[in-house]
Automatic annotation (TrEMBL):
Taxonomic source organism: Pterulicium gracile
UniProt feature coiled coil, ranges: none
Residues holding ATP: 44
SUPFAM superfamilies in UniProt: Protein kinase-like (PK-like) (SSF56112)
Name recorded for this polypeptide: Kinase-like domain-containing protein
Keyword field contains Nucleotide-binding: yes
PROSITE patterns to which the protein is assigned, alphabetical: PROTEIN_KINASE_ATP, PROTEIN_KINASE_DOM, PROTEIN_KINASE_ST
Pfam families listed in its UniProt record: Pkinase
Length: 283
């Protein structure tokens, strides 16, 4: 048991590891300095023992990254991939600005125009991913990172290729409660619409600083998602937000996933298309 919880070993050979940047369920992400060039990357170190029986997940993450990485300005770039005796290591561009989650928790919610500008980039990246036949399945503010002021979609660990012949075969419950669509809770299906729901929750979070389905207990949270029970309240958080923004969020949070617009369609929504000013964070 003590072996399982052990820290993944340092990255050998070409890299020297530095400070820890973040942690996920199966990984530790560390700074990795390239010994020859001095360039600094973010290295996702996945412990093979923790992944026993789930090796397919890592192979899948790499396969998907090979398709989406470096192809879009708002999707993280995978630079290198190698295995050591104990770990699988994925080296990414270093996103020095950290998680959107931290930015909002530390600095506060976004002004509406800035939120639209930010979310436009996220929707553009997600539209690219969906058009490549991939569903992300774990969109949340901890998987959206800042690099040189740009928002980047990261963590393709739960992503899947869509099967065009059987578009609704993804039936596992996966994702993060609070951001998961009702049909995912119900194990009905997991198509691109599930990502749109999560983006609706993220847009709400960016504008309000809290999420719409946050409840004291997990089953209450699930109930509120299943019944679509959310409000734009308290009023002091929402009174300065336009009906257009609320309408945008509501169309992402349509309970029936077959009625939700696609990411590409939402890029034409007037809330996202009116997008001309600089980004700043409200305190
Ligand atoms: P998991 O699949 O285990 O959730 P992630 O890929 O989401 O792993 O990485 C875990 C955390 O590590 C992220 O939430 C983030 O804080 C940090 N991280 C991941 N990739 C990078 C990166 N390229 N640059 C900086 N920090 C990163
Ligand atoms: Mg993650």
């Amino acid at each position: 048991m003590s072996q399982v919880s052990e820290e993944p070993a340092a990255v050998p050979c070409k890299y020297r590891t530095g400070k820890t940047l973040g942690r996920g369920s199966f990984s530790v992400v560390k700074e990795a300095i390239h010994l020859e060039t001095g360039e600094v990357f973010a290295c996702k170190v996945i412990n093979k023992r923790l992944m026993e029986g789930r090796q397919k997940m890592v192979r899948n993450e790499v396969e998907i990254l090979k398709i989406v990485s470096s192809r879009h300005a708002n999707i993280v770039t995978l630079h290198d991939y190698f295995e050591t005796r104990n770990n699988v290591c994925l080296c990414f561009d270093l996103c020095t600005g950290g998680e959107l989650l931290k930015v909002i928790l530390e600095k506060g919610k976004y002004y509406e125009r800035d939120a639209a500008q930010l979310m436009r980039k996220v929707f553009d990246g997600v539209s690219y991913i969906h058009n490549a036949g991939i569903v992300h399945r774990d969109l949340k503010p901890d998987n959206l990172l800042f690099k040189d002021g740009e928002i980047m979609i990261a963590d393709f660990g739960l992503s899947r290729f869509m099967d065009e012949d059987k578009p609704q075969v993804l039936t596992e419950v996966c994702g993060t409660p609070g951001y998961m669509a009702p049909e995912v809770y119900r194990k009905r299906c997991h198509d691109p619409g599930a990502d749109i729901w999560s983006l609706g929750v993220i847009t709400y979070f960016v504008l309000a600083g809290y999420i719409p389905f946050d409840r004291a207990e997990t089953d209450q949270e699930m109930e509120s998602v299943l019944s679509g029970d959310y409000t734009f309240e308290p009023s002091q958080s929402w009174e300065s937000v336009t009906g257009l923004a609320k309408g945008f969020i509501s169309s992402c949070l349509i309970r029936n996933h077959t009625h939700r617009p696609s990411a590409t369609q939402l890029l034409d929504h007037p809330w996202l298309s009116d997008n001309t000013r600089e980004t700043s964070v409200q305190s």
